[in-house]
């Protein structure tokens, strides 16, 4: 995220980045407060030091390939399975099943990953 913001800022000839909106897939299970703290620490002395970041969580959505049912991922607590999904989202197929038909054959429709939606720069 930081390297992407810095690359765009450099490409555009920015003196600083005023604001950035970050989309955060809930499947990643990243704590927003920790993300903000890490961002502040890692951007000291860079064009991003004064950047206001807006973090918008995105719900994780699945669609069953067997029955077409769609549902959201909700992590009720900390389990080994949730920890595994956090680090390797592809493992969701090993631990999750369609709540309607119990099939493990589903696709992830959204809510995975972290990406920059937009940035506002000052030249």
Describe it for me?
With 123 residues, this protein is α+β, with helices and mostly antiparallel strands. It has one domain: hypothetical protein PF0899 fold. Helix content is 27%, strand content 31%. The chain contains four helices and six strands; from the N terminus they run αβαβββααββ. It has helices at 2-11, 32-42, 80-87, 92-95, and strands at 16-25, 52-58, 61-64, 70-72, 106-110, 114-122. A three-stranded mixed beta sheet has the order 2-1-6, with helices on one face. β3 and β4 (70-72) form a beta hairpin. The protein is elongated and about 55 Å long. The model has no long low-confidence stretch (mean pLDDT 87).
Summarize the model shown.
With 123 residues, the protein is an alpha+beta fold. Helices cover 27% and strands 31% of the residues.
List keywords for this structure.
123 residues; alpha+beta; hypothetical protein PF0899 fold; 3-stranded antiparallel beta sheet; 27% helix
Q: Could you please say which CATH topology applies here?
A: hypothetical protein PF0899 fold
CATH architecture: 2-Layer Sandwich
Give average pLDDT, whole number.
87
- Overall structural domain count: 1
Enumerate how many helices there are, as a single number: 4
Number of E strands: 6
Q: Note the main sheet.
A: 3 strands, mixed
Record the strand order, biggest sheet: 2-1-6
Order of helices and strands: HEHEEEHHEE
The rough form would be described as elongated
Radius of gyration: 18 Å
Low-confidence stretches: none
Share in β-strands: 25-35%
Q: Structural class from helices and strands?
A: alpha+beta
Quick one: CATH class?
Alpha Beta
